[in-house]
C-alpha cells in the first residue's frame, strides 16, 4: 500500500508534508520524487498496446475476445502476452459480444412441441 496519495491530500489540506512524512516513516525526498516521476516504460507500452487493442476490437465490431485480439496483434508484430491483452481489455472495458441469435425456446418454436 502506498502512502503518497494520503500525504498529497494532507498537503492540499494545508498540513505539513514534513510531519506527515515523519508519521508515516517516508522520506520527503521519496515523496517529491514520486510526485514528479514520469510513467515507466511498462506504462508507456501498455498505453500503446491499449490503443492497438481498441482498434482491433472496434474493427471486429466487438466480437473478438482476448485470444483473437492477441492473435491479430501477434500477426502484426506487436509482441505481447495473451494475459496482458486480457488485462488491458478489462481496464479499457472492451468485452466480446456475440452476434449469435438467441437460443430458441418452446414458445418461439411451436414445431418442436409434439
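Sequence proposed for the structure above (114 residues):
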Amino acid at each position: 500500500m502506498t502512502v503518497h496519495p494520503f500525504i498529497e491530500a494532507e498537503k492540499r489540506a494545508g498540513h505539513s508534508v514534513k510531519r506527515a512524512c515523519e508519521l508515516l516513516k517516508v522520506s520527503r525526498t521519496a515523496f517529491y520524487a514520486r510526485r514528479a516521476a514520469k510513467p515507466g516504460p511498462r506504462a508507456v507500452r501498455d498505453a500503446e498496446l491499449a490503443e492497438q487493442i481498441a482498434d482491433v476490437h472496434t474493427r471486429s465490431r466487438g466480437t473478438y475476445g482476448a485470444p483473437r485480439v492477441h492473435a491479430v496483434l501477434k500477426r502484426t508484430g506487436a509482441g505481447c502476452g495473451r494475459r496482458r491483452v486480457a488485462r488491458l481489455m478489462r481496464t479499457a472495458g472492451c468485452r466480446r459480444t456475440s452476434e449469435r441469435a438467441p437460443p430458441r425456446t418452446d414458445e418461439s418454436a411451436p414445431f418442436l412441441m409434439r
